[in-house]
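One-letter codes give the sequence; each number marks local geometry. A record appears below:


***
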Amino acid sequence: MELGAYSFGDTQLNPDGSQRSTAEAIRNLFETIEHADKVGLTYFGIGEHHTASMPASSPGAMIAAAAAATEHIILGSAASIISTDDPVRVFQQFATADAISGGGRVEITAGRGSSVETFPLFGFDLRDYDRLYAEKLDLLMTINESVSENVTWSGSVRPNVDDLAVVPRPVGGRLPIWLATGGNASSSARAGKLGLPVSYGIIGGEPHRFAPLAELYRRSAAKAGHTGDKIKVSVAAWGLVAPTKKEAMERFYPGWRNLNIEMGKLRGWGAPDKRQFDAQAEAPGAYYVGDPDEVAERIVHLHGYMGHMRHFLQMDIGGLPQEHFLESITLLATEVKPRVERLLAAK
């Protein structure tokens, strides 16, 4: 089981509640990835976001910088919003990062965009939501599967590519490409049909309710003739690890509350309710908030339903103090990971 973290960037807050600079948030994120590599975390994902509180808008740039500063950790987008980006540029950015890393540590996770801010920002129409994604995912896969540097592709959402070079190529010839979904059945079936690994974002409800989707994914892959190690499942969730459950709850709740207030203004979410937080932060809720024993046990419990090979947490939301983020990363790598391995080995 691979353990990891993902982040959209998290802008710190002043004592009066005002936001500090987004540049500081990016520097903090870079520091965290370096730290995660040093303490032995397996994976770190950068989720494309375009808000002042979550400013990691350029996963490719961040991953290229991190690739130069780290040695072992797998780096990926979590996710790249390819619906409103150009797959040629996404591929080139990640292939460049792969070359800088020495090869084999860079992945793309392709998402449709739960954060719809990218559609007006880049001039796309939300009514084209799925068509944009389907065609651009096809282009991204066509580039990745090409046996040469020259690529040919045609579609309706961007100009055709007619035997043109797309460079650099990844060190190993191809990049791992995942399909991200928040729990959509058609997306699960699509990932299976295409033979792509699938990454489920689970940020509410009981996580094991996603088990039928994982099963649908595997059935769809088998029906399409896709087998082997490319057919795999990962789970992204909210969570925080601290020395004690009490500390984890007290550290994670203020950021959760801040984020819910912000999202309430942007997207009409309801007012934050502490009872809702408490329910989600206890088994079988969606938040992996606790001490190393509890978080490890809950990850292994979900593995019994999902059979996933990677579990990674978004910890830095709503202005989580950087020192708490770094400590959680350390505990996840050095305390939770060996517990998960031990529990899985005993099953």
User: Anything to note?
Assistant: The longest strand covers residues 233-241. The radius of gyration is 19 Å. The mean pLDDT is 96.
